[in-house]
Amino acid sequence: MEGTTGIWAYPAIVGVVIAPVEDASGIWAYFVTFGALIVAGFGVPIPEELPVIFGGGMAAHASTEGGHPYWWIMWPACVAGAVLADACLYGLGRLGGPHLLEIGWVKRHVVKPEKREKIEANFHTYGVKILLSVRLLPGVRAPVFVMAGVLRMPLAKFILADGIYALPVVSLLFFLSFWAYDTVKGFVEGHLPLFKAIGLFAAVLVVGAVWLRARLRRKETTTGDPHEVPIIGHMDQVPVIGTLVKPAAEDPVPSPPVEKAPAGVPPVEEAAARRKF
Questions:
Q1: What is the pLDDT of residues 201-232, one digit of tens each?
Q2: Among 2, 13, 216, 269, which lies 20 to 30 A Cα-Cα from 87?
Q3: Model pTM score
Q4: For residues 168 and 136, what is the distance between their CA atoms, to the nearest angstrom?
Q5: What are the backbone angles phi and psi of residue 238, rounded to the nearest 5°?
């Protein structure tokens, strides 16, 4: 899209996926947006909502100049892309079965053992309703959809429920972006330096959060000791301004040893008294 500012608040991997969505035009916009939704569904660290928002913005921009992408094609493409991405994760779980959950990479990055039992219990308790809660909580979708396949939820039931839950959420984001495109675009272009500064600050926060998480993950176990937390655990070593530090007491100088008089010799006072009387 012309006049957009780019993705300032996300790591480079996000830009690799989203930049083609921003630059797509004409009929290719449908395919690029659809593909970005599929990639986001497979665990690439970008929110699934971003391609939908960009899709709505591209449709709004095209409506002012005529031509593709049309909103009435882009909208169902976004819904289909979101549902198909979820179905792919479901298919992986269905084909892999419980053996898929024993693969090291899957245990570390997709369905962690401590979450597996909880997700399975939620499926038995809430059924397909869990798909709605996952749809409203970005970032935790992949484990739930994979577990739905592992537990062999009926495919038709999964597609129907996921489509029903995805339709209002995706539609809301798409049309908000479509209707607010001109207003937001004008505001961003009028305050471009401010948004660049905010984006740079957000990028620094993201890098810091990634570094802190990596430091914490290197510890195999935790005992609750504050010293195990980087930076925070070492605050007690920083002197407080204005605090008077009492110097440590010095060891007293040892007095010289007193020489004892030889045996049979009276003390000085007794000897003096004997001389006097």
A1: 888 887 887 787 677 665 543 434 445 445 54
A2: 13
A3: 0.61
A4: 11
A5: -90, 125
